[in-house]
Fold each of these.
Amino acid sequence: MFVIYGRNPVREALLDRRWDMKTLFLAREGRDPHLAEIVALARERRIPLEYRDKRAMDELASGGVHQGVVGFCSDYGYADGNALVSETVRSGGILLLLDGLSDPGNFGAIIRTGYCFGVQGILIPRDRSVRVTPTVMKASSGALLQVPVASVVNFARTLDGMKEAGFWIYGTDAKEGKDLRSVDFRGPVGIVFGSEDKGIRPLVRKKCDAFLTVPISRPFDSLNVSVAAGIVLYEICRKRAESATGTRGSG
């Protein structure tokens, strides 16, 4: 079973019928009025409601911040990586590739940012990588329900297939790469972010067509990966909006 907790993630799951909610648990104490919409949605879908005390709720959420609501769903279903690549080629969109990310908080934050900036989906390696978990769901504030995540067996081979399909693959590097602001991001693009401690693996680096660097004002080792993802995606969207309207920014 897949556990979803927190008001916004549970609400989004109830609104999206692709998620098969089995049972909804609510805090017995106080009967929070903010949960009224969630209760109404659950009753509309005829999902069983059960009330528990605070200790039981904390156990159901494995100590996570549940805000008085925990839902049990069928297991998370990863997207088909090949289908995701094909759809993104047709739309000329953006795929994120997370090479060995380990922190579920960073993963959730990247999913949330990706949703805000219109990414088509996210690809992760099947091994030695963070997986989709309830913590990731909570950190994404429910955006995981809107952004498909695919788990692929061979990351380097997946990049080869993407390039053959028409993608331009950009790796990210804190010190070596083109200034993010100088790049034309038209067409289908894949953006690779490495792990928090080691960055992009050497074999995956070799598959990248070019590297991007986020310009910073003061000398520092590197940005947090989720922060860097937000900056990169903002700039891609800004550049694409300029191209679509024929305008040029002042920077």
Amino acid sequence: MLPQRVAVSIVGIPVIVGLTLLGGPLFTIVAGFLLTVAALEFYAATDPTSAGSRTHHLLHQRPLALIGAAGVALLVAAADNGFDWWTRALALLVLLPFLPIILRGEAETGLRDWLWMLGGLMYVGFLGSHLILLRDAANGEDWVLLALLATFATDTSAYFVGRLIGRTKIAPSISPGKTLEGSLAGFAAGLATVLILNWALDAGAGLEIIPLAFLLPAFAQLGDLAESLIKRGAGLKDASHAIPGHGGLLDRLDSVLFTAPLVYYYLTWIIL
């Protein structure tokens, strides 16, 4: 598994950096595709009608799950057209799922299914589409790179240090592999990466970058634990087997789903 993780990272990180620097429609299309697949993983894992029998047939799901995944793609496309279009799409997608539920007269399970669909839409689509908003902001390519690479540094350091010297479990019922030693290493690596990248990329932040340097690794690890909570509730180790050695796309995006909105709002509210 470890060689596969390393090989995927060696190939994947330059591709991610290249796409971020290119920006434009290609960045939006790739981000939309990845987030849509991640949403399908979420719905396959958490479908309340198939508890205890997770088949991971990503495209063979209930119509409501497919609507939710399509909604994620719509949110990404709307975000690329600006904040106003993004909020309009979000409002539409909150209301739209009621239609098939009402037409089918699902009074007993309707609320449950609506909340399930909305959960995936908000968790993957709403949070993930902040990557597009961030890329379209001033110096957006620098801030996307900072968010992604600092998140990867946090996750990678926590993983390797936890494997090597981790002893103290911090959330054994949610994520048995998470240790205090690994968490501290991840925090230190993420903090340092934010500071280094802000300087190296000349992202435009002064001393106000320091609070973000502390917040980002904390949010990254919170995102990782949040997805672990979802997987444990579904009785799964990985969201899928889409990426060799890494699990599913959702397993790789879980921390980014928390750090991308953090960096976007920190940038727009405090730095700009």
